[in-house]
Amino acid sequence: MKTYRIAAIPGDGIGQEVLPAAITVMEAAAARHGFALAFESFPWGCDHYLRTGRMLDPDGLDRMRPCDALLLGAVGDPARVPDHVSLRDLLIAIRQGYDLYVNLRPIRLLPGIPGPLRDKGPGDIDILCVRENSEGEYAGLGGRFKRGTPDEVAEQTAVFTRKGTERILRYAFEQARARPRKRLASATKSNACQHSMVFWDEMTDLVARDYPDVGVTKYHVDALAARMITHPETLDVVVASNLFGDILTDIGGALQGGLGLPASANLDPERRAPAMFEPVHGSAPDIAGRGIANPMATVWAGAMLFDYLGEAAAGADLLRALECVAAAGQIRTPDLGGRHTTADVTQALLEALGDPHEPAIVRPQTAAR
């Protein structure tokens, strides 16, 4: 039996609850399709930092590199470790260390999930956001001068290289070309950022010449944020810089019904290092330990992981199970207005997957507690 080696990083807060739930569902889907998953757990996160002074061990990237993929729960515990430390030294360290320059975030409203927009249903919200993941506003360059004095200065420098900008744009154009509508929206702010975003626009025009079959529209990011609310059905693939993509995909999470649902992939399309998959949500310290975190985003990340491994049928099974449980509307964690637990949702997803020894089916969840 083919076995894939997966690095599991539960991280902090609810990451330690949703990751085991997702692993249970992923293992069931793998069994249905004749392959196995070998998970190796790595204890990195804020607890590790408080014990060792490091979010990630010095040899951490080398130890995980032989894995086929990484699955991350959540990062952060701001009451104990500043967010800029935890994110920089674990999440961003992995993204930049492996040069996972694509952050891919599907924005889809599942059937049965009440979205926040009046008269907008699942058919209106199906956007793929391609976010640059390695440089831009999160490059980490800058500093502080004359700290604590009236003359204090803080400088944060955004970095846009030709290589980094062109490769994310080409990836986004390829994604748009593969989708039925063949539409690409580029997020810019060239009316105010006269260097970085003018360069971004110029590179967009340059790359577009190689994709004459893809329609391109450049939106100022504030206008694009508004369009996601007023006319989401007009958007197909969105490409954005690191900061703009981060903000726009949180709007996307709201369109999906909450951050308990959206998933993301961190990819190097050339596959020089293992990709990392994660839910978009954070560690939610306010509900950690209560067993009520929604595992659906992490399961969705698992479906993206299966697609990356070439196990598309298993990935499709996970997505159908998510759609089935969502459409039935009987099992809901509190973030979706219900009273069910992480374990309840996990069980519902397992039942939606069906018996691993039977043909692949998805059947509605019929029992609620």
Describe the structure.
With 369 residues, this protein is α/β, with parallel strands linked by helices. It has two domains: 214 residues, Isopropylmalate Dehydrogenase, CATH 3.40.718; 140 residues, Isopropylmalate Dehydrogenase (3-Layer(aba) Sandwich). Helix content is 38%, strand content 22%. It contains eleven helices and twelve strands. Strands 2-1-3-12-11-4-5-10-8-9 form a ten-stranded mixed β-sheet, sandwiched between helices. It has a two-stranded antiparallel ribbon with strand order 6-7. A hairpin with a 7-residue loop joins strand 11 and strand 12. Helix 9 packs antiparallel against helix 10. The longest helix has 18 residues. The radius of gyration is 21 Å and the shape is globular. The C terminus is likely disordered.
Q: What is the compact description of this entry?
A:
With 369 residues, the chain is of the alpha/beta class.
